[in-house]
């Protein structure tokens, strides 16, 4: 997931105040708060420490195993998991429902439960409808995995490696230990206090604003890694899947980031840091069960069959990113960002980052009884607004208004456009004095327009498709069938975990991304 540094810093540190925003959906628009949502780099944390030393486990089964579907009123583990579950689901775009994929994940997890530290512990597994790559656990047996992670994995053992690690946190009661050190109620009051309106917004802000009871200590991470690799082997999976998938996630983070040295574009690696030492440790633990390639099953064929057709990238409810263009069929709108910018279509808003610390945010609010967009700009929802810059504009036949604002070392262009009963808002931030503000804001506003019926009908989601390599297929021809990216060959190699110099053979199964 991409960090939008300039706007984040500005709103958190320089104090640009914005009014409650609303996220785009075809049926309804949920109230949000721009200040919290722009600061989306603070994501749900699950496992937060670099593993740089070995750990000798001393783990015993949980004293009072919790059946998730039979929550006991006096069990704090189940109460915490049940309380936070709807908030997490909301912050990650809801649940992803597909019978084939759900059965696949249940099959993988089921094999792990029989070899866990507490085999009578039950789990509630939720696939989150998010392209982010993440997995985490809450006390009481609540496990979460995103469809983005499932799309990146290439076999069942890799998903099992992630789930076994998270299950280890549950059986070792790590969530309870963490909660004793930093009470969830303290975090809730701090985060929700920042929300200007809407109970739903408060719940979602709480989930994203560092849910500490899912964040674990360095020692607990080491413990969960050791337990997880052991569980892989005992369940019959390839124990080397853990270091293998860590490498895949690190490669994806490099592929997705604007600045590979500083950007945290991957949820899982921002909360489960992928230091080389951790991969080495996982491989060392796997060696205790045998040499690589000689132990365990990867479960590749049934896994690929289970994710064939899996939704990839953006969901229709949140709109689509196609190269430099954002399109939303339900709302019937589209706009473009300049070359060299990268769009991040979050649940909360559309964010984009570009050269020279330039950042963009796009969201929408209900128009309500707003009569004048110039009056709307000056109604107090933007601190640092320069009133003399406010002026009406027309954007491809639509009513609009624009103004400039300043806060500490940042300059802003704020443009609003009315369409039907909604007001869409562009916020562009550049370092103070940068000459690019006019150019970037002009590209954004001039490209914003309503979609034609033909464009709307042609807009379809991308999915993972599993193909069998034919005798005439090559890396280049298969990669040429990839959609939704300009870096087709790079992404094809990445999602198939093909290293440099790798070749393909007839009969081999590979993944591509297409409609």
Write up this protein.
It is a single chain. The chain has helices at 5-14, 34-38, 76-91, 99-113, 147-152, 156-171, 174-181, 184-192, 199-208, 218-234, 241-256, 267-271, 276-287, 300-307, 373-377, 436-447, 453-458, 475-479, 488-495, and strands at residues 20-23, 30-33, 124-128, 135-138, 142-146, 311-312, 320-322, 325-328, 333-336, 342-345, 350-354, 358-366, 385-395, 398-407, 410-419, 422-431, 449-450, 462-468, 509-514. The strands form five sheets. Strands 10-11-12-16-15-14-13 form a seven-stranded antiparallel β-sheet. The chain is of the alpha+beta class. The two termini are 23 Å apart. The chain has 19 helices and 19 strands.
- How many helices in DSSP terms? 19
Instruction: Look at the helices and sheets and give the structural class.
Output: alpha+beta
Total strand count, please? 19
Number of domains: 3
Form type: globular
Estimate what percentage of residues fall within beta strands: 15-25%
Overall pLDDT metric: 75
Spatial order of the strands forming the largest sheet: 10-11-12-16-15-14-13
- Rg to the nearest angstrom? 24 Å
Largest sheet: 7 strands, antiparallel
Helical content band:
25-40%
The residue ranges in which pLDDT falls below 50 over 5 or more consecutive positions are 1-73, 174-216, 259-273
N→C terminal distance: 23 Å
């Amino acid at each position: 997931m991409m960090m939008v540094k300039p706007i984040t810093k500005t709103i958190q540190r320089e104090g640009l105040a914005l009014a409650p925003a609303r996220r785009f959906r075809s049926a309804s628009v949920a109230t949000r708060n721009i200040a919290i949502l722009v600061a989306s780099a603070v994501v749900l944390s699950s496992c937060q420490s670099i593993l740089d030393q070995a750990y000798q486990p001393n783990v015993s089964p949980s004293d009072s195993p919790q059946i998730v579907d039979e929550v006991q009123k006096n069990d704090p583990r189940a109460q915490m998991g049940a309380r936070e579950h709807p908030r997490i689901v909301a912050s990650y775009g809801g649940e992803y429902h597909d019978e084939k994929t759900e059965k696949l994940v249940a099959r993988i997890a089921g094999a792990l439960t029989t070899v866990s530290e507490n085999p009578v512990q039950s789990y509630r597994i939720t696939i989150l409808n998010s392209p982010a790559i993440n997995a985490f656990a809450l006390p009481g047996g609540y496990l979460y995995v995103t469809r983005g992670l499932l799309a990146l994995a290439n076999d069942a053992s890799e998903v099992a490696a992630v789930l076994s690690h998270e299950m280890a946190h549950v059986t070792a009661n790590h969530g309870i230990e963490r909660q004793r050190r930093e009470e969830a109620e303290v975090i809730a009051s701090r985060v929700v206090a920042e929300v200007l309106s809407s109970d739903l917004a408060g719940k979602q802000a709480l989930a994203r604003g560092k849910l500490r009871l899912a964040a674990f200590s360095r020692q607990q991470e080491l413990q969960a890694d050791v337990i997880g690799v052991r569980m892989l082997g005992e369940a019959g999976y390839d124990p080397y899947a853990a270091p293998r998938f860590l490498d895949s996630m690190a490669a994806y983070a490099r592929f997705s980031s604007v600045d590979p040295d500083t950007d945290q574009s991957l949820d899982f690696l921002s909360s489960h840091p992928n230091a080389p030492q951790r991969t080495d440790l996982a491989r060392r633990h796997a060696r205790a069960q045998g040499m690589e390639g000689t132990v365990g099953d990867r479960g590749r064929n049934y896994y690929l069959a289970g994710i064939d057709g899996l939704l990839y990238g953006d969901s229709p409810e949140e709109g689509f990113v196609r190269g430099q263009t954002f399109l939303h069929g339900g709302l019937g709108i589209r706009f473009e960002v300049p070359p060299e910018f990268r769009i991040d279509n979050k649940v909360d808003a559309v964010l984009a980052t570009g050269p020279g610390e330039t950042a963009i945010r796009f969201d929408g609010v209900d128009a309500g009884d707003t009569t004048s967009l110039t009056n709307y700009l000056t109604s107090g929802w933007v601190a640092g607004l320069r009133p003399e810059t406010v002026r009406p504009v027309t954007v491809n036949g639509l009513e609009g208004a624009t103004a400039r604002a300043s806060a500490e070392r940042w300059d802003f262009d704020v443009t609003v456009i009315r369409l039907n009963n909604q007001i869409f808002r562009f916020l562009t931030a550049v370092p103070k004095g940068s000459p690019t503000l006019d150019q970037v804001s002009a590209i954004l506003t001039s490209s914003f327009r309503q979609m034609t019926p033909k464009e709307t009908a042609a807009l379809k989601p991308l999915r993972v498709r599993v193909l069998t390599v034919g005798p005439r297929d090559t890396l280049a021809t298969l990669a040429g069938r990839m959609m939704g990216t300009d870096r087709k060959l790079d992404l094809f190699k990445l999602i198939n975990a093909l290293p440099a110099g790798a070749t393909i053979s007839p009969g081999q199964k590979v993944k591509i991304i297409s409609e």
